[in-house]
Amino acid sequence: MVQDSEQRAPSVTPATPARVLLPSILPAVAVGVVSCLVLVGVSVAAEELQDLLWGPLPDALGIGRYSVAWMFVMLVATGAAVGLVVWKVPGHAGPDPATVGLDAPVLPPAVLPGLLLATALMLAGGPSLGPENPIIAVNVGLAVWLGGRALPRAPGRMWPALAEAATIGALFGTPVAAALVISEALAREETRGLLWDNLFPPLTAAAAGALTATLVEHPSFDLDLPSFGRPGWGDLSAALVVASAGALLGMGAVRSFPHVHGAFRRLRHPMLMLPAGGAVLGVLAALGGHLTLFKGLDEIAVLARDPEGRSAGEFAVLTVVKLAALVVAASCGFRGGRIFPAVFAGTALGLCAHALVSGVHPSVGVSAGVLGMLLAITRQGWVSLFVAAVLVASPGVIALLCIASLPAWLLVTGRPQMQLRPDGTPVR
C-alpha cells in the first residue's frame, strides 16, 4: 500500500534556484533597452519621412496631400523604392515576409540594415502593414550577434526569446502582451522548471522595453470611446455576433492570402512585384480613402473620435478595403506585420455594427470586432484578447470578450494561418 501511494503521489516540478535566474537580469535589461531604441528609431525616422512625403512635398507640387493621384503615385513609388532595396541591398531585406510571423528567424548581421531600410520606407509610404515582424527580426538578429560575443557561454536560444519579448513589450508599452505571447510559445515546447522560471528572463526584457518606450514615447492604445458600464444580455449577444463576424471576415482574408501571394510571385522580380503591389494598393486607397493607408494605429483614433460620423456602409467599405490592402501588402513583398492593420479592420467592423444596430455599444462592437479579426489573422488567443481589451480600457468588457472568444476560436482553429511555408502552402 505504501508503494502504491508513492506511485500515485503527484509529481512536483523542481523550481529554478534564484542564483540561476539572477545572472539573466542584466542581459535581459540590455536587450530590452536596445530593442526599444531600435523600434523607436525606425518609427521616428519613418514618421519624419512620412510628414515630408505626405505634407510639404505634395504642397510644393500643388497636388492634394491625399488626392487619388498622389496616393497612387506614392504607393507605386514606395513599391519601387522597397523593391530596389530588396533587389540590390545585401541580404535582400530578409526572407519573403509572407513566410515570417512573430517568431522571427535569426538573420545574419549583413541582412539587418536592408531590412530596417525597407521597413522605414514601407511605414512612411503608406502600405497597410505595421512594424512588428521586421523589427522583431532585426532585434533578434542583433541580440544573437551582440549577445553571443558579449556572453559566449550564455545559451544561444535565450537571445531570440529576450529580443522578441522586449520588442513586443516596447510596441504595446507594457510587458503583459509579451508575457502572453511567450506563454503561448512555451506551451508548444518542452521546458524545464516552473512557468514563471521560464518567463523570468523574457519578462524582464519586456519590462525594460516597455519602460523605455514609456519614457521615450508615452504609447497609449485607449481609443477614448464612450464609457461602458455593467454588461447586459444584449451586450453579450452583440459581442458574440461581432467577434464571430470578425473571425469569418478575417478567415476570408486568410483564405485569399496564398492565392494573392502566388499571383505576385509569378512576376518573379522585386522590381515588378512591389511596384505592382503598390499600384493595387493605390486603387484600393482610391476606394477606401486615406484612412486605409499606413499601419492604421493613428487612423483608428480618427474613427473612434466620431463613432456616429459615418454610415454603416462607409464603415463596411473601410473594413473590406483595409483587409484587402493588408493581404496585398503582405503578399507582394513589403516588409511589415499584420497586427495593426487587422486592428483597424476590426475597429471599423465594430463601428459598422454600431451604425447598423444602435443598441450595440461602440466599445463592445470595437473590442469584439478587433478580437475576432486578430484571432483569424494572428491565431494568438491571448494577444487578441489583450489588444481588444486595451483599446477600450473598460473592465466590464473583459468578461464579454472572454466569452465571445470561444465561438470565434472554434471558427479559426485548425484552419490555415496568414503565414506561408517557403513552398507557398499555408501554415496551419
Distance between the termini: 48 Å
Helix count from the secondary structure assignment: 18
Q: Biggest β-sheet: count, sense, barrel?
A: none
Helix content: 55-70%
Short description:
The chain is mostly helical. It has 18 helices and no strands.
Describe this protein's structure.
It is a single chain. The protein is globular. It has helices at 2-8, 18-21, 25-53, 56-61, 68-88, 112-125, 132-150, 158-172, 175-187, 195-216, 233-265, 270-288, 297-305, 312-332, 339-356, 362-378, 381-392, 395-412. The protein has 18 helices and no strands. It is mostly helical and 428 residues long.
Keywords:
globular, 428 residues, mainly alpha
Topology summary:
Elements: H1 2-8, H2 18-21, H3 25-53, H4 56-61, H5 68-88, H6 112-125, H7 132-150, H8 158-172, H9 175-187, H10 195-216, H11 233-265, H12 270-288, H13 297-305, H14 312-332, H15 339-356, H16 362-378, H17 381-392, H18 395-412
Helix pairs in contact: 3-6, 3-7, 3-8, 3-10, 5-6, 5-12, 6-7, 7-8, 8-9, 8-10, 9-10, 9-17, 11-14, 11-16, 11-18, 12-14, 13-15, 14-15, 15-16, 16-17, 16-18, 17-18
